[in-house]
From TrEMBL:
Any one GO molecular function term: glutaminyl-tRNA synthase (glutamine-hydrolyzing) activity
Record-linked PANTHER family: GLUTAMYL-TRNA(GLN) AMIDOTRANSFERASE SUBUNIT A, MITOCHONDRIAL (PTHR11895:SF7), TRANSAMIDASE (PTHR11895)
Originating species: Penicillium argentinense
Region feature Disordered, mapped onto this chain: 116-142
All copies of domain Amidase, residue ranges: 31-493
ATP-binding recorded as keyword: yes
Record keyword DNA repair present: no
Segments traversing the membrane: none
Any one GO CC term of the record: mitochondrion
Family that this chain belongs to: Belongs to the amidase family. GatA subfamily.
Database matches in SUPFAM superfamilies: Amidase signature (AS) enzymes
Cellular localization per UniProt: Mitochondrion
Name of the molecule in the record: Glutamyl-tRNA(Gln) amidotransferase subunit A, mitochondrial
Active site residues of this protein: 60 (charge relay system), 139 (charge relay system), 163 (acyl-ester intermediate)
Length: 508
């Protein structure tokens, strides 16, 4: 199929479906058409710029684009169009990719179901057996649904505590969060700087890999972007004789974290996990239990640290320096003397306001030691747990002087579910029942936040557990399985994800 045909089909789907995946869909006409036609000509001559030349890549609406508005799904940015492109957008355009529209999200990336958006909730293209609408996951729910529904070739999201992996698991797509610092965040609206990463969503691992190879570069404009020197050191380390055997189809050591076997896991997710491990074992890889004891505090630590950073980042939206000015009772925004309150009270949605309050409290002098500092300590313990499980000191972490590798751990990757259950019904999340409680949404991130706190690469891939009858495929269960690797081991994480992605398990 020509690239033009492919792109036109995507755009037609953007306009035909009522999934609310886009805040700004691509117009049916525009410059993008010429760019796709040029890519088609390059392809005919056998000179494509890259694997994504002429393909539509949708962009989460918290990533700045010069040609389309960037709202972060917030009232406070409803009139904002960035004067510049984020580095990731520049890199994609240079590789020939075409900006495929701006996708819906939880406001500023805060949420797990893409329901906290000024533009209304994202609708999953999957339904449950009773035909009920399901949560798309969040906060990059729009990007995940756009990929799942064929409204773009692939999409960028952001992942602070699971925002790419969770929607991938709920929509049956592949969602990849790279190691912290590998992909530039210049031009990405900050939520929690020490955790934010740009992530990639695709219908398979190869499309994700194609985009990653374009974006995985040092960016001098982003102070947290990993330097060239550090990148080379990691590459040398990963290709050292001690580790190179695993790159040559020798068996991998797969870690299974004991603490992740929670009672909250639904039987279908537990079954998908067990069958995924058996699938890897059948290919010759070996399974090893690992212990990540600090994991049980990960969620609490994340929900202290992320709101604390968010409260500081969002302070600038006051209607004076940044943000759409809120109107006071007389419509001027000033007459009642509460300019900030009017602006922030009407501009931010309730979840963002909750996080600002939480974060402001945990950073206050009285609470700092008990909350913020403790959470930082927990974060360090979580990082140490992972280092012990992978048991090969990373070149950017303190060296293990005698080079000793503990036999009990020493796993190459960790494999676990992405979520504890299949997606909840959208109606349960929006109708004011107990399921709407913020805590309920926070618990959704239990398996994704540990890798975020440790800055590790992680991918969620879809696996299908067969209904056994072999006939009623509507009873098959689609589940997201997560692969987590050591810092910088992004390629290996994608390789293992590829072994599982799209597998149909439990048929025999
Ligand atoms: N941004 C994310 O990674 C989503 C996470 N559920 C949060 O609300 O923080």
């Amino acid at each position: 199929m020509s690239l033009l045909r492919e792109a036109e089909r995507c755009v037609a789907k953007q306009h035909a479906h009522c999934l609310n995946a886009f805040i700004t869909p691509l117009a049916r006409t525009g410059q993008w058409l010429d760019r796709v036609k040029e890519a088609d000509r390059r392809r005919e001559k056998g000179e494509p710029k890259s694997a994504v030349d002429g393909r539509l890549v949708a962009i989460k609406d918290n990533i700045c684009t010069r040609d389309l508005p960037t709202t972060c799904a917030s009232g406070i940015l409803d009139k904002f169009t960035s004067p510049f492109n984020a580095t990731v957008v520049e890199q994609l355009e240079k590789a020939g990719a075409v900006l495929g529209g701006k996708t819906n999200l939880d406001e500023f990336g805060m949420g797990s179901h893409s329901i906290h958006s000024r533009f209304g909730p994202v609708r999953n293209s999957r339904r449950d057996r009773d035909g009920q609408e399901l949560s798309a996951g969040g906060s990059s729910g729009g990007s995940a649904v756009a990929v799942a529904a064929g409204q773009c070739y692939s999409a960028l999201g952001t992942d602070t505590g699971g925002s790419v992996r969770l929607p991938a698991a709920y929509t049956g797509t592949v969602g990849f969060k790279p190691s912290y610092g590998l992909i530039s965040r210049w031009g990405v609206v900050a939520y929690a700087n020490s955790l934010d990463t740009v992530g990639i969503l695709g219908s398979d691992t190869s499309s994700v890999r194609d985009i990653f190879s374009i974006l995985n570069r040092h960016d001098p404009r982003d102070p947290t972007s990993l330097s060239q020197l550090s990148r080379s050191r990691i590459r040398c380390h990963l290709q050292s004789p001690q580790l190179s055997s695993r790159l040559k189809s020798s068996p991998l050591r797969i870690g299974v974290p004991l603490e992740y076997n929670l009672s909250e896991l639904t039987p279908s997710v537990r079954l998908a996990w067990v069958l995924s491990l058996a699938h890897l074992q059948a290919q010759g890889h070996t399974i090893h239990p690992v212990s990540l004891p600090a994991t049980k505090h990960a969620l609490s630590a994340y929900y202290i640290l992320a709101p604390a950073e968010a409260s500081s980042n969002l302070a600038k939206y006051d209607g004076v320096r940044y943000g759409t000015r809120g109107e006071g009772p007389d419509g001027t925004g000033q007459a009642d003397g509460y300019l900030y309150a009017n602006t922030r009270g009407s501009g931010f949605g309730s979840e963002v306001q909750r996080r600002i309050l939480l974060g402001t409290f945990s950073l206050s002098a009285d609470a700092m030691d008990n909350y913020f500092i403790q959470a930082q300590r927990v974060r360090r313990l979580i990082q140490q747990d992972f280092n012990a499980a992978f048991a090969r000191q990373h070149p950017l972490v303190a060296e293990d002087t005698d080079g000793h590798v503990s036999e009990s751990a020493n796993v190459d990757v960790i494999v676990c579910p992405t979520t504890t259950s299949s997606p909840p019904r959208l109606s349960e999340l929006t109708n004011g029942t107990s399921k709407t409680s913020p805590l309920d949404a926070y618990v959704n991130d239990v398996f994704t936040v540990p890798a975020s706190l440790a800055g590790l690469p992680a991918i969620s891939v879809p696996v299908t557990v067969s209904s056994k009858s072999g006939q009623d495929s509507s009873a098959d269960e689609l589940t997201g399985i997560q692969v987590v690797g050591q810092y910088g081991d992004d390629e290996l994480v994608m390789n293992v994800g590829e072994l599982l992605a799209g597998s149909r398990l439990g048929d025999n």
